[in-house]
Every structure is written in C-alpha cells, then in structure tokens.
C-alpha cells in the first residue's frame, strides 16, 4: 500500500533445506499513466547481522545478570570489592561504601588500605602483588579497623 518495503527480515530456505537470514527491500515504479511498471526487490543475506543480534541479546542477558548480582550483593552483610591489576577498584557493594563512609565510586586505594588492620596490610600487598605478577586470581580475607 505504501509502494515500498524496507528491511523485512525473513529466513530463506535453500534447495538443500538449509536456511539463511535475509532482509528484503523493494519499491514499485509507475509509468506516466500511473500504472504499475516495475517492482524492484533486493534481497540481502545478513548472516553477519544475525550474529550481531545474538551478541546484543547475550549482552542484554549479561547486563540483567549483573543487575541481579548487584542487587544481591547489596543485601548481604559482607563487604565485596574487586580490583584491577593496577590496583584500581572496579566494583564495591553497598556495605563496602557504608563501612568506609564513602560516596559511591569516590574512594582511593590508600584510603582503603589505611582501614586494613596493620597485621594484614603487608600480607595483603605481598599476596596481591604476587598474584598480579603471576596473572592469577586473588582472594583474601582481611581484618579491617573500625
């Protein structure tokens, strides 16, 4: 009715029964008398775009799982944080920010280290440095000063 079709997505079936995703674009052209003269239809194989859609769906699912994790981690009594190899803290839960009296994402590593009990501070730095050098994951429970 509009004389044009833009990007209708279909899965085409080949003679051997296999399928491939495609977009169809078309337009109609009329002669001077207004009668239909030609229909121009183009089919684009979009296998790559189909994978983009799958990646987008996977990203949305990962974001949803991250939101669930954030929600759950904010309600447990433990403090959780993650740090990058350069020492930059990349994630903290709500309990962490409340304990340190910090605004969301506004903290410095030195500030946090000052709250680590002196008996654990050296062990923490030593073990973390060894993990970074060996490119291993690192987890450690430490005592914090109030």
Please state the structural category. alpha+beta
Question: What average pLDDT do the residues reach?
Answer: 83
For the biggest sheet, the summary is:
3 strands, antiparallel
Instruction: Give the strand order of the largest sheet, numbering strands 1, 2, ... along the chain.
Output: 1-2-3
C-alpha termini separation: 73 Å
Task: Please tell me about this protein's structure.
The protein is α+β, with helices and mostly antiparallel strands and 146 residues long. It folds into 2 domains: 4-47, Ribbon (Complement Module, domain 1), CATH 2.10.70; 77-146. 40% of the residues lie in helices and 27% in strands. The protein has 4 helices and 5 strands, in the order E-E-E-H-E-E-H-H-H. It has helices at residues 47-75, 94-100, 109-113, 118-134, and strands spanning 4-13, 19-30, 36-45, 81-83, 89-92. Strands 1-2-3 form a 3-stranded antiparallel sheet, covered by helices on one side. Strands 4-5 form a two-stranded antiparallel sheet. The protein is elongated and about 90 Å long. The N and C termini lie far apart (73 Å). The mean pLDDT is 83.
